[in-house]
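Workshop exercise sheet. Pairs work together: one partner reads the sequence aloud, the other fills in the structure field after running the prediction. Swap roles for the next sheet.
Pair: D.N. / O.F.
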Amino acid sequence: MDNIIERLETVDWQLVCSQLNDKGYSQIKGLVTPHDCDVLRNQYGDQQLFRKTITMERYRFGKGEYRYYNYPLPELIHLIRENVYEKLAPAANSWMNVLHIDRQYPASLSDLQSLCRAHNQHEPTVLILNYKQGGFNTLHQDLYGDIFFPFQLVLFLNEPGTDYEGGEFVLTEQVPRAQSKAIVLRPGKGDALIFTTNFRPVKGNHGFYRANMKHGVSEVLNGNRYSLGIIFHDAVT
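Structure field:
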């Protein structure tokens, strides 16, 4: 496993947080190596690593399949989750402050997990998603309970244009008194995308307001698309 801690330390986190404030998302190029992408993608076949498999059509979430990891998470995933959380917690608290939301997030992931457990949220929410030809994911938000962290991360585990066509990552932002804005992204293998779980603060004429955002995946036209979602809060048992 490549030294992910060193890679994370080279990221311009001030820029990431600025982009999250301005757009609700930030892309980090080449956060994980192609080899680590292959290792993570190949884990999809190891049933012992996962607590649950979801067939998306059954719940009308789209078309495809995803699997939730068990605790303990694989080391690479744990290190990314733990260290990225610590980088983002100050920005999360800034969002709560400007929106006058009575919530402050602890500095460490372990303390966030303690807060989740106090609200009966015990289950890990990290998952691998697999879309074959025709697969897609409807627009949604990953909340899982009363306690949710306002940012999440997706790692893209194979290469668009080579391993699959279509399957773009889609964000929508609700614009007050107007139609929703769509954002279409096509990150490459090894890239990470950090984005809002629920909303972002936008400065208006009378202070900040919440702009609600959702995310999904457009239809995969051919090939097989894999991604890994890292959600920082845990789920209700």
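Discussion prompt: The mean pLDDT is 96. What would you look at next?
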